[in-house]
Write a structure and sequence with these properties.
The complex is a heterodimer of chains A (about 120) and B (about 120). With about 120 residues, chain A is an all-beta fold. Chain B has about 120 residues and is mainly beta. The N and C termini of chain B lie far apart (about 40 Å). Chain B contains no helices and twelve strands. Helix content of chain B is about 0%, strand content about 50%. The chains are: A mainly beta (about 120), B mainly beta (about 120). The interface between A and B is medium-sized, with 27 and 24 residues.
Amino acid sequence: GAGVSQSPSNKVTEKGKDVELRCDPISGHTALYWYRQSLGQGLEFLIYFQGNSAPDKSGLPSDRFSAERTGGSVSTLTIQRTQQEDSAVYLCASSLAGQGIETQYFGPGTRLLVL
Amino acid sequence: AQKVTQAQTEISVVEKEDVTLDCVYETRDTTYYLFWYKQPPSGELVFLIRRNSFDEQNEISGRYSWNFQKSTSSFNFTITASQVVDSAVYFCALIPAVTGGGNKLTFGTGTQLKVEL
């Protein structure tokens, strides 16, 4: 079956512009995660959606970052007024929603470059 | 808070050599899960293995094997008879199994493995 898909694969934007990154999880996976991978910070958690529960936003670095998940499937990560330090690879993952900890499967990522 | 340390930033080996990637973790939780992921040059994180803290049995999958030792808080990964296709960045990660703790992976900084002919 299809894995996690993300679009665009690459995005170049100018400082101050808004960007939207999209994630399509594996069919049947109800949990969805966003992570960021940057040279200085490594891989860090951003936000987590689980079914209809309120998302865990504890990893979002500033109020310029937001994410939503429509219909329990596709998710969009929005970065407003982008800054150069937002340049990174944004990775999305999804998992089943079991009783315990489920394995997260990752997409190919979106490489964001803020000029 | 959790912490995962991968002290080896980069390892270079010649094909067919065995190589071990080290992972040391810190957590106050008694129940937790450990993971290894592979990130080839294409960039996608590929899941390799998961272990829970109650299962210290070592595991072998083909040329890959994992040695989990709670006494030293380590979860090391060995590739036997390495191949060029094994060249990638390998990440060790941890999730504590605590109620309300979410499902957030805490990653190590990764080890870049280069396998040369």
